[in-house]
């Protein structure tokens, strides 16, 4: 794995030049197909399991999860109704309750209570399901309102899934600005002001996406402030903790992730096992406080899907998901949970946070680099910051872009960039299963050397 480049070294359109334009008329020998996979496909893959992959949010993949996925693929059980394969539904319910307990989510979110959790493909799907459920809840509560006046709130740091899902549902999305002085967290006053303005203009705020661990900087919105306001105005509060949520497995990170406020106020909560959570793609979670709202929105049962005389015994997965059938994801999650146990899961998170402390300490000591926001769990965000009195932000951004271009052209490490509050910066996210201190220290050396080289190149 580490012997291949981190980033695919191919040009756009490379594959079209290598493969025929049509399906072969006659079936081909399977060995040749596998050989071509090695020859043509592997070189075009960016190596997400490389120990020096620090871009986006790394995927902490494990062989146990891969085996679980292979088994699930070989079973092909869409599991939309309990009877389609009782084990699919029942294992999913069990692993989601196990996970809720490991994360400290209250009993409200477990299947034994009013709520419960299921596995979705992505955090975007989880949000879409929550939005549809919230819309139905609102209309049921206030049948006289006009749903075309609905407005969804996200922050300027919310992942693009907020805007995208608003677009899918045809609902206006209002972006609320966050400040560098609040470490890019969305605050209650900002939301309250927006609600008052929108209500005065005849709009109906009904959904708020709060993030625990934003993509750019790992910021955590003030769930305590937002939750109270959301409840006051009957707004559904969804917590998108796609990346950072798995850190709830460690009690010492629960305050940072605002677990108490999540338990008090969230209507739905999502985190992805397929990012930092040791399970390979795809395994996103969605927990809801009240399952009735989800099933009221998504239960469409023609005669051919109707279960016989078993109502209210088990949930039917098709009433919690956009698709009818879904992949048997619970199997790989179960394999990973059993292989690692809570202690192993916690150790994985703690090790990566410790590596980020090491990395951030190097940045803080660097004469040329400076953190843009406080390190968040396993993520650091930084830029070149020169102590020149008359340097304008646009000049500094230009220099930082030039530095990032140098980093992006390398095959031996992978980091990604972002922009927050007009500041261009570089992100360093730790999470790969094979990443160790030596890889982090080497990456820091490269990053600092390239920064010196960019500065030497001039503004
Ligand atoms: N939310 C946050 C905070 C993210 O960082 C990301 C991806 O990086 C997502 C959502 C999107 O996740 P998915 O690809 O599972 O939809």
From TrEMBL:
It holds the Pfam family Pyridoxal_deC. GO terms for cellular component: cytoplasm. One of its GO terms (biological process) is amino acid metabolic process. The keyword Membrane does not apply. Keywords: Decarboxylase, Lyase, Pyridoxal phosphate. GO terms for molecular function: carboxy-lyase activity; pyridoxal phosphate binding. The modification N6-(pyridoxal phosphate)lysine is found at residue 275. Its cofactor is pyridoxal 5'-phosphate. The keyword Lyase applies. Gene3D superfamilies: Aspartate Aminotransferase, domain 1, dopa decarboxylase, N-terminal domain, Type I PLP-dependent aspartate aminotransferase-like (Major domain). InterPro entries: Aromatic_deC, PyrdxlP-dep_de-COase, PyrdxlP-dep_Trfase, PyrdxlP-dep_Trfase_major, PyrdxlP-dep_Trfase_small, Pyridoxal-P_BS. Belongs to the group II decarboxylase family. This is Pyridoxal phosphate-dependent decarboxylase. It comes from Mycena albidolilacea.
